């Protein structure tokens, strides 16, 4: 509910503003320790990324309520946004976007971690689980860049707005594609913020979509084995439908004005 989201936002904002906040039966304040504020900014940013790789990866629509709160907090407390990006880029290098190359002397285990895989006791997480986490984090990022906290002053620009999404898309299409990962990330990104990018960039956006269809999808196909075609097929269908309709659908779960009256 919109009212519940406002409560969450107010509590986080109050905490970061140095006001005393009630939690689990006790009152806490960042002023209680000289590094209290820095600690809270760090843990809060980390928590938002965890929501992306956990909550959003399983419930895709949850990207929007989480993102709108973070967007508002980022506007008022830029430090949280900076640390959020640092956590996000470390956990999901594809959010830069960046495909780390393996350097000489780097162990397989260490390289897997650089690519974003979780490695425990020399066991690497399964590909499906890895892709799900990356998907959740990219969807959260794609939601953040288009959303603003509706009760903010909106005097300045969005602290990390659509221009960053446009840059991400351009940089992504300049990278050599990876099997599995590239098709999934592009589809997630376009599903979540394609509509917003279309409205902002118009003809330039459609040129990019046409480039994806004619040039980039064949490059993804070239590195994709027959057993990895699922996500690529969904990306192809999505791009084709959008180009035929000359419209990108609104993402599922987007927060409408009526949401804020609940």
TrEMBL record:
<dbReference type="GO" id="GO:0005737">
    <property type="term" value="C:cytoplasm"/>
</dbReference>
<comment type="similarity">
    <text>Belongs to the GLE1 family.</text>
</comment>
<dbReference type="GO" id="GO:0016973">
    <property type="term" value="P:poly(A)+ mRNA export from nucleus"/>
</dbReference>
<protein>
    <recommendedName>
        <fullName>mRNA export factor GLE1</fullName>
    </recommendedName>
</protein>
<dbReference type="InterPro" id="IPR038506">
    <property type="entry name" value="GLE1-like_sf"/>
</dbReference>
<keyword id="KW-0539">Nucleus</keyword>
<dbReference type="GO" id="GO:0000822">
    <property type="term" value="F:inositol hexakisphosphate binding"/>
</dbReference>
<dbReference type="Pfam" id="PF07817">
    <property type="entry name" value="GLE1"/>
</dbReference>
<keyword id="KW-0963">Cytoplasm</keyword>
<keyword id="KW-0811">Translocation</keyword>
<comment type="function">
    <text>Required for the export of mRNAs containing poly(A) tails from the nucleus into the cytoplasm. May be involved in the terminal step of the mRNA transport through the nuclear pore complex (NPC).</text>
</comment>
<dbReference type="GO" id="GO:0031369">
    <property type="term" value="F:translation initiation factor binding"/>
</dbReference>
<keyword id="KW-0653">Protein transport</keyword>
<dbReference type="GO" id="GO:0044614">
    <property type="term" value="C:nuclear pore cytoplasmic filaments"/>
</dbReference>
<keyword id="KW-0175">Coiled coil</keyword>
<keyword id="KW-0813">Transport</keyword>
<keyword id="KW-0509">mRNA transport</keyword>
<dbReference type="InterPro" id="IPR012476">
    <property type="entry name" value="GLE1"/>
</dbReference>
<keyword id="KW-0906">Nuclear pore complex</keyword>
<dbReference type="GO" id="GO:0005543">
    <property type="term" value="F:phospholipid binding"/>
</dbReference>
<dbReference type="GO" id="GO:0015031">
    <property type="term" value="P:protein transport"/>
</dbReference>
């Amino acid at each position: 509910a919109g009212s519940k989201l406002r409560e969450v936002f107010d509590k986080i904002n109050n905490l970061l503003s140095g006001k005393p906040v009630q939690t689990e039966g006790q009152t806490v304040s960042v002023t209680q320790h000289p590094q209290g504020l820095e600690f809270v900014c760090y843990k809060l940013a980390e928590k938002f990324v965890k929501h992306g790789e956990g909550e959003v990866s399983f419930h895709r629509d949850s990207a929007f309520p989480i993102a709108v709160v973070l967007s508002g907090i980022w506007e008022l407390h830029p430090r949280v946004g900076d640390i959020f990006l640092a956590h996000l880029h470390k956990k999901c290098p594809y959010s830069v976007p960046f495909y780390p190359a393996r350097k000489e002397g780097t162990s397989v285990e260490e390289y897997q971690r650089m690519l974003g895989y979780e490695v425990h006791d020399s066991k690497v997480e399964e590909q499906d689980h890895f892709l799900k986490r990356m998907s959740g984090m990219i969807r959260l990022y794609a939601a953040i860049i288009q959303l603003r906290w509706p009760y903010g002053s909106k005097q300045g620009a969005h602290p990390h707005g659509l221009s960053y999404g446009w840059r991400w898309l351009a940089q992504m299409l300049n990278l050599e594609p990876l099997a599995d990962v590239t098709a999934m990330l592009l589809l997630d990104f376009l599903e979540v913020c394609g509509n917003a990018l279309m409205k902002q960039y118009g003809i330039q956006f459609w040129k990019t979509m046409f480039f994806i269809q004619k040039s980039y999808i064949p490059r993804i196909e070239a590195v994709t084995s027959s057993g990895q075609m699922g996500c690529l097929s969904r990306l192809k269908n999505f791009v084709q439908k959008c180009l035929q309709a000359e419209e990108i659908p609104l993402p599922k779960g987007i927060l409408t004005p009526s949401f804020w009256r609940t």
